Amino acid sequence: MLLLDPYEVRRDFPIFARKVHGKQLIYFDNAATSQRPVQVIEAVDSFYRSLNANIGRSVHELALAATEAYEAARKVVAAFIGAKPDELVFTKNTTESINLAAYSLLASGLVRSGNEILVTRMEHHSNLLPWVRVARLAGAKLKVVEVTDDGRLDLDDFRRKLTDKVRVLAVTHVSNVTGVVNPVKELCEEARSRGALCLVDGAQSVPHMRVDVSRIKPDFLAFSGHKMLGPMGIGGLYIKRELAEKLEPPFPGGGAISLVECGVEECRAEWLQAPHKFEAGTPNVAGAVGLSAAVEYLERIGMESIEAHERRLTEKALGILQELGVTVYGPLDVKDRVGVVSFNVGKLTPHEVAQLLDSEGIAVRSGHHCALPLVKRLGTPLGTVRASFYLYNTLEELDVFEEALRKILVIAS
Ligand SMILES: Cc1ncc(COP(=O)(O)O)c(C=O)c1O
Fold first, then answer.
1. Ligand 1, from 33, 34, 91, 95: best to mutate by most atoms within 8 Å of Cβ?
2. Nearest-angstrom CA–CA distance, 104 and 82
3. Whole-structure pTM over 0.90, yes or no?
């Protein structure tokens, strides 16, 4: 495995030329969205300059070239997660991917009255609210697996709640609040052995570690392009082929059908094969092309190198926070987590700390991180300050972070 050189990586990211409050930007808000390298910006730019046409419809040269670029992007992104091209549906983001999965199950009658849906207390609202809605519409029961005091999944509670009535387990791979990594391969295996389907929310894992569906064997895997160097407005939903064949598309429309017939009183449609039946309407073609460029960029650096680099950053960040005596949430052992660190400083609110860090040029997120049930369980209803890292962050930036925190501690005292 090659050691990643973040200083070399940074040269590809034009945003780092920018100053914030007159200071060099230190971007520690990668769990919200990442920055983009020139390779991605140019791929999107080049699509609109020389390839732009709608896809899968017209037969002119430009339309065929655009269709080819879109399908080539699908191949690259699918291979990145160990899937076949026809198992990858392009969506807008993780939120849309999870809604697509949930409503497909509802539309296909695979979640019904009397069934149970299992989620966990550490889910992002995007992997909670679609299931709340679908459970209500189906007449199914939603059950929540608890977390331990340090924010890990309570596996005993998981096993207690995984009854034969559970039809779906929806679980995050990595918590966007604590960085905890869940054993999703084992969770999916146990769910499968009880006859349940398994959706993995990969929003915080796919950008940061090698995620391979042929190893984890989920039924669905959802992720967002904008958190992995890609453009905003493009994401993915992996659907296992045998399941995709059975699923009714919940959002029907043009581009998803092989036939539509209307009699006097009724119309009917026949769907295209997956993934096209799930992609009605004009998709984000430039976004897919940009995401493919992002994946090529990540692959060139190597996911193993990226993960190891983030682990070094996380270890140093946790060391700084502990030495300064601030409250850290989640396990302190770096092997159980990735590059997301949540903390609070004395009596200051998370937003106050984030504003003080911003005045030093350091961008972090503060608040509930769209995971209210978890932050309440962690005993911090106003949420936390969250620093999250990526391949272009440096150990030196953490020295600046430490200095800034020392100043904030003086204010807090
Ligand atoms: C774990 C997790 N799931 C889902 C989402 C939703 O992602 P998006 O806003 O790209 O749909 C996020 C975003 O932060 C997340 O961290």
1. 95
2. 23
3. yes
